Amino acid sequence: MTQVSVDIVSDIVCPWCWLGLRYWDQARALVPEIQTETLYRPFQLDGTIPPGGVAYKDYMKKKFGDGPDDRFKMMREHLEQAGPAAGITFRFSGIPVRPNTLNAHRVIRWAQGQDLGEAASERLHKAFFEDHLDIGDLAVLTQLAGEIGLDADIVASLLSSDQDRQAVLDEEQFYRRLGVQGVPCFIFNGQFAVSGAEAPEVLADAIRQAASLPQDDDDAG
To answer: CB-based contacts of 211: which residues, under 8 Å, 6+ apart?
Structure first.
């Protein structure tokens, strides 16, 4: 069976990323004849946020504004309408904190090492957008890690250290140097990319295209 390796560069607090991940799941189902390997790659939309996070509504108003051309309001309404078809219920109004996501990306990294990367990414997105949990909080991250099957005690110990902190930052910079400026970004076999939360049919076509190309041994990452 042909195999396609896909690096998904994303951030947990990006609603388009969660939508994109759901579309990706649907896309894979459209091409069952092609085996896919999904690797979750870190990208912080704003790495300057302090470890304790900031008030979500204040942050979004500062970033997008709240005047007659309220981009955040328009984006929010679009996503709340698009979400249910992908099995997502976005509840932006109740999100209390815009967290720093570095530690969440560390958890995804460790989960991926145990073939739980998809479960970690999905659970963290749900925790933020639907459950309104502070995914910058170490206790919350430890609990969520345990829920997906990681050893919570080990994760708590790792989070209290600097383990893999620099590795995540270096990996993020690698993709920024490749030219990734927005997420989600799907990189197929390290050869070409599809940016944004594209429809499942578009991603399925990209899988077929990647499978038809000569394989490159030097995949991204």
So the answer is: 2, 4, 34
Tokens of 159: 């989070």
Residue 15 lies in a domain: yes
As for how many domains the chain has, the answer is: 1
pTM to 2 decimal places: 0.93
CATH code of the domain covering residue 76: 3.40.30.10
Instruction: Determine the structural domain holding residue 172 and report its residue range.
Output: 3-212
Write out the two tokens for 110.
Answer: 């460790």
Greater model confidence, 194 or 63: 194
Kindly report the CA angle at 143 between 112 and 48, in degrees rounded to 5?
70
Instruction: Decide if 189 is inside a domain.
Output: yes
Cβ neighbour number for residue 186 with a 10 Å cutoff? 28
- For 181, the 3-state DSSP assignment is coil
Is residue 221 included in any domain, yes or no?
no
Is residue 179, in this structure, part of any structural domain at all?
Answer: yes
* pLDDT value of position 220: 41
Query: What does the DSSP 8-state code read for residue 187?
Result: E
pLDDT digits over 141-152, tens only?
Answer: 999 999 999 999
Give yes or no for a contact between 141 and 103, defined as CB atoms under 8 angstroms apart: yes
How many angstroms separate the CA atoms of 24 and 18, rounded?
Answer: 10
Helical ranges in the chain per DSSP H: 15-30, 56-64, 71-82, 102-112, 117-129, 138-147, 152-159, 165-178, 200-212
